[in-house]
# Entry
Amino acid sequence: MAPNVGSTPSENWETQVRKGWLDLVILASLWKEKLYGLDIIRRLEAHSDLLLSEGTIYPILGRLKRDGLIDSEWVESDAGHPRKYYWLTPSGRRRAAAMARYTKTFFARIDSLIEPVLAKEER
Amino acid sequence: MAPNVGSTPSENWETQVRKGWLDLVILASLWKEKLYGLDIIRRLEAHSDLLLSEGTIYPILGRLKRDGLIDSEWVESDAGHPRKYYWLTPSGRRRAAAMARYTKTFFARIDSLIEPVLAKEER
DNA sequence: AAACATACCTAGCAATACAATGTATACTTC
DNA sequence: GAAGTATACATTGTATTGCTAGGTATGTTT
# Structure
């Protein structure tokens, strides 16, 4: 999930397919615990190989909060700048679960479409 | 994968996650045979429950052709307007295969992220 | 006090999907 | 032969997204 630094067509495609999934990715990250922005970025990179930049995540967190899916609170930190912790609202939990279920059916559709492509790669 | 006719936030999300995958969906549709625009739309709806509109598919076909992934030719039809048939170029076949492989790893990442969400849906 | 580390935020751009609308061809019906 | 219908391709304008490149704010280290 690297940002599209270069710009070959295929790198651009990888950028484009990530779009839209970040909402779910972030909501899922908050499923079990409160986290702050940079922490979400670091965990996704460490555990899921998904790289998001700060300019990506903060606008999304702002949008999710505006939509009432998450809430936040400032917390003093022992390491410099204070942190803004986010957590799921009840509405956010319902939405994350609905998104996760939809994801399964969406993946199944794409899987069946690419099956012939993977079966015989034309060599 | 219905078009976003209404506009509740959750329907909007479904629209957003589709974005980017349509290139692969269309290339995969052309894996085994030449097809024309409306035919691709009809097959995707019938076989995969994916609904695309004409205003969506024609610009994408134009872009894929500009990128050299598909080629096309006009064919007279016995049913009114002539049809523009598309097929994969060698470059398009390679790209479709690469996209399909990437898709598998991407799906695996998202799957592992949403696993906790699906495991316990907070009832 | 300068440099560094941490953390959050925003403006401007590029790319996408899609509804709405328009064009072109041929067949059918009156 | 005019009107209506069906098929098929194409474009315009809008909303939404992700991200680079910058910026602000706080506290620690040298």
